[in-house]
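Contributing new complexes? Match this layout with dinuclear copper ion.
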Amino acid sequence: MEVELYERVWMWTAAALIVVFLAAIFLTTGLRALQPPSHVETVDPTALSNYPEFANPGVTTRADGSVVVSVVAQLFSFSPDPIVVPAGRPVTFRLTSADVMHGFQVVGTNANAMVIPRYVSQFTATFAKPGEYVIACDEYCGASHHNMVGKLIVK
Ligand code: CUA
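Output block (do not edit by hand):
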């Protein structure tokens, strides 16, 4: 069977791309053991008062100047509220839930994580623009889910 040159070029290109994509999947999952950062640390959601950072959730500045925010989500609010963080500096959020699964989305930014009871979800974000941001729960969590909002103040 005669196959045109361009046809052959595209067939081999497509095959090579599939090999590259599969290799990327296997290398990142297998060799580097990547996993969601939310499934590393566990806490007891019924006894959050035993964990100092979640007993008194809030904003702390470490010795190296980095900022850490511990947040507890519960039906139907975030604690602390508002959260006040500096602009232009990396802010690490450590989130957990006291009851059911919630979401933590800083609207208009790419800061977004699921908040899962029994686990600590952690991510780091830098907010370049000072201002007030809405924090929305973006996982359906109950009758008043639509009212579960918080405020992030960047200054
Ligand atoms: Cu919490 Cu929806």
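Reviewers usually confirm one structural detail per submission. For this one: Residues 109 and 152 are 11 Å apart (CA to CA).
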